[in-house]
Design goal:
Blueprint: H1 2-20, H2 25-32, H3 41-60, H4 82-98, H5 102-108, H6 114-139
Length: 147
């Protein structure tokens, strides 16, 4: 059942990305270009996702366990540390340069656009490099900010 629910969630996500136009990097880059050809439509997509998630989480947390698992799989820490901050900054820079984040990259793949075909392999290589880099950053002592 878990795979079926995962597939259905991914299908809804992908369809939503394509219908909303978020698989087009130009649309995302125009959202980030607040002093040029600013396109606020991404804010509506993010707002809709935030409202849906807020309601969904309120309903799910009332259950003793998820439908397809024995227990909820939650992060073990809420610490804001160096790898989190550096990773968020690098992700934001990559998103701003390419106009893609991972989900829309995969949904745009069938369009076979040259930008997508260059971005996707580079993203996958970056993900492979990210693991060792995170371990290296985590091994260096740095003050952490706890929530």
């Amino acid at each position: 059942m878990r795979a079926v629910f995962g597939f259905l969630a991914g299908l809804v996500f992908g369809i939503g990305l394509v219908i909303s136009g978020m698989s087009d990097p130009a649309k995302v880059l125009n959202f980030l270009d607040v002093f040029g050809y600013w396109d606020p439509s991404l804010a509506f997509v993010m707002g809709g996702a935030s409202v849906t998630s807020f309601i969904g989480y309120r309903l799910v947390w009332k259950r003793p366990a998820p439908i397809a698992m024995d227990s909820f799989d939650l992060p073990g820490t809420k610490t804001i540390d160096r790898p989190l901050l550096i990773g968020a900054a690098v992700f934001g820079i990559g998103w701003g340069i390419g106009g893609f984040c991972p989900g829309p990259t995969w949904t745009a793949l069938p369009l076979m656009a040259p930008g997508t075909l260059a971005f996707l392999p580079a993203m996958l290589v970056g993900m492979m490099i990210g693991g060792p880099l995170k371990r290296a950053l985590s091994s260096r002592p740095a003050p952490a900010i706890s929530q």
